């Protein structure tokens, strides 16, 4: 997994408590329906949202979300699990998710698990 990430992706960590959320179409698509309020500078208004973890895989320009989450997840999961379940991936399936995301752009370079 480390080799695939280093070779094919640019990982970015955004601390939403201190850093604005990037104004990218793919990120905005992921945020829809999550009831997250942003100020004019795209900072999360409710600072307790710092626990929000999301794995978004986008094209290099941030226009296309390559790992879209199903839109039918229950909102109640915020109370059950303490987070919104965007791009829920069990640890043993994370590599599969990365490869699937990459295969949308470069199917010829993706090896099977």
**Could you give the count of β-strands?**
0
Give the N-to-C terminal Cα separation.
Answer: 10 Å
Beta-strand percentage? under 5%
Integer average pLDDT: 76
The total number of structural domains is 1
Q: Element order, helices and strands?
A: HHHH
Helix content: 25-40%
Structural class: mainly alpha
Shape: elongated
Instruction: Figure out the total of helices.
Output: 4
Describe the protein.
- This protein has one domain (2-103).
- It has four helices and no strands.
- With 113 residues, it is mainly alpha-helical.
- Helices cover 26% and strands 0% of the residues.
- It is elongated, with a radius of gyration of 15 Å.
- The longest helix has 10 residues, at 94-103.
Would you kindly provide a brief summary of this structure?
This protein has helices at residues 2-8, 25-31, 77-81, 94-103.
List the SSEs and their pairings:
Elements: H1 2-8, H2 25-31, H3 77-81, H4 94-103
Describe the structure using short key phrases:
113 residues; mainly alpha; 4 helices; 0% strand; elongated
């Amino acid at each position: 997994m480390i080799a695939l990430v280093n070779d094919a992706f640019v990982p970015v960590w955004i601390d939403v408590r201190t850093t604005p959320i990037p104004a990218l179409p793919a990120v905005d698509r992921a945020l829809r329906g999550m009831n997250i309020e942003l100020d004019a500078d795209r900072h999360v208004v409710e600072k307790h949202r710092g626990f929000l973890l999301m794995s978004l895989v986008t094209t290099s320009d941030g226009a296309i979300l390559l790992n879209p989450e199903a839109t039918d997840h229950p909102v109640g999961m915020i109370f059950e699990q303490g987070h919104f379940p965007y791009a829920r991936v069990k640890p043993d399936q994370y590599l599969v998710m990365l490869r699937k995301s990459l295969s949308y752009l470069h199917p010829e370079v993706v090896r099977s698990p």
